[in-house]
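Researcher: Here's a chain I'd like modeled. Treat it as a single chain, no partners, no ligands.
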Amino acid sequence: MAKKLKHSVELTVYANVDELSVNDKELIERAKKVSKTAYAPYSQFYVGAAIRLSSNEIIEGSNQENMAYPSGMCAERVAIYYANSFHSDAKIDTIAVTAFAKGFDVNHPVSPCGACRQSMAEYELKQKQPIRLIMTGESGDIYIAESIETVLPFMFNEIELKKE
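Model: Modeled as a single isolated chain. Structure tokens:
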């Protein structure tokens, strides 16, 4: 007989940036600033990501679209891949993601796409410690997840590949 499995997600919700720590405010500001460098002529949705490494260095990335959609890259993966390429010994502490759009106000937290969540999960597993995720828009609430697993609860991981 089939049964239902219920899964819940726990996020911390803040009404505005003034409620956050200095470090979290800085990450959001950097993500908003780098979103202005996004190349998004097709979606008109400009995403910025800022990563704080264990060394306290901040790495930034913005989405880069291409007419052949699969050839573009999301802001989160631009930043994560850069961080691992040039700071492979540093761990990722926190990632902040935000966006603005032409034509409407992004007044809710921006959530990473599935591919970005899986990429972030890979680095969380690699470094054996949680990565905090801050999600915000131009205005509105700010969501914070204490781990990528929170936003990708049934993530694919290396255990799935092991045959024992």
